[in-house]
Design brief:
The protein is 42% helix and 21% strand. It is α/β, with parallel strands linked by helices. The two termini are 35 Å apart.
Length: 285
């Protein structure tokens, strides 16, 4: 079994490569030039390969050194993150998080589970409303953070793109009706806009059989075979089937998801959840 890599040697190696010489790296790691040289010799002996090309006045990595550099940086970054996570004081407090029903039920659980494990003393209070209402909730100081779906021309950093799909009852062929019966979320909702835009672009006639902010109500209408609808792919229940172009329905644009923050919310707990959401939302599959 190979001996574990010495993080001090890795830190010096990165400093040497980034500085371009042993002498320039020495003050960065708080050692003499001769000590830095000895460290690099020890590292090359440990890995059993030459990692550096030593020129008269400079040093540069060879092919093996370039590859090793990537691993060295990752190991050092992971070490720093682990140290910071263990030594920082535990935050306490409460965060009011706004989130639409479909994301709350299907996208949020794994994120909140991991956040709770890392920050057990932080309480997260969920406020479930449509994205348009959550924008107002931020303005009214009712929530600290909100996960929202971007509407057209809204200035919002896009953290995640969520596939938006047509859904229908598995026991009905509702899409064959003309005009097409559709169920829609409330006016102003990005999903509603996407559905109407797709139908308009395809010149497909339709009639709205249901309009509400309720996700459960929309699912019930579709499951009964009374309409088709557009849903975020992450929120499609097993009681519905995904349909699309094979059934003659026009393609739908993806939903753009981001996080809004109340500028008046400056607590450490809010900072932690904000950072956690921005780092983890895109990784949920």
């Amino acid at each position: 079994m190979a001996a574990p890599l010495d993080l001090d040697l890795l830190r010096t190696f990165v400093a040497v490569v980034e500085s371009g010489s042993l002498s320039a790296a020495a003050p960065r790691v708080g050692r003499s030039q001769s000590a830095v040289s000895m460290q690099m010799q020890r590292l090359e002996q440990a890995v059993g390969k030459q990692l550096l090309i030593r020129n008269p006045r400079s040093v540069e990595p060879n092919l093996a050194g370039e590859s090793f550099l990537n691993y060295a940086r990752r190991l050092l970054r992971l070490s720093d993150e682990a140290w910071a996570n263990v030594t920082r004081p535990e935050e306490t407090g409460s965060v009011r998080l706004g989130v639409p029903d479909d994301y709350a039920a299907f996208l949020l659980p794994p994120i909140l589970s991991r956040f709770a494990a890392d920050h057990p003393l932080v309480t997260v209070e969920l406020v479930c409303e449509q994205s348009t209402s959550l924008v107002k909730a931020i303005e009214d100081n009712r929530v600290d953070l909100a996960i929202v779906t971007r509407v057209q021309k809204q200035p919002l950093e896009i953290i995640r793109r969520e596939r938006f799909v047509w859904v229908a009852s598995p026991t009905h062929v509702t899409w064959e009706n003309d005009p097409l019966p559709i169920a829609l979320f409330e006016p102003g909702c990005a999903g509603r806009t996407h559905v109407l835009q797709a139908l308009g672009d395809a010149d497909r006639s339709y009639r709205c059989t249901y309009s509400s902010a309720s996700l459960l109500g929309l699912i019930a209408v579709v499951q009964a075979g009374l309409a088709v609808a557009g849903l975020a792919a992450c929120s499609v229940p097993s009681s519905l089937r995904i349909v699309g172009e094979n059934e003659g329905l026009p393609p739908l644009h993806d939903l753009e998801v981001g996080v809004m923050r109340n500028p008046n919310s400056t607590d450490a707990a809010v900072n932690r959840l904000d950072d956690f959401l921005r780092r983890n939302l895109a990784q949920i599959v």
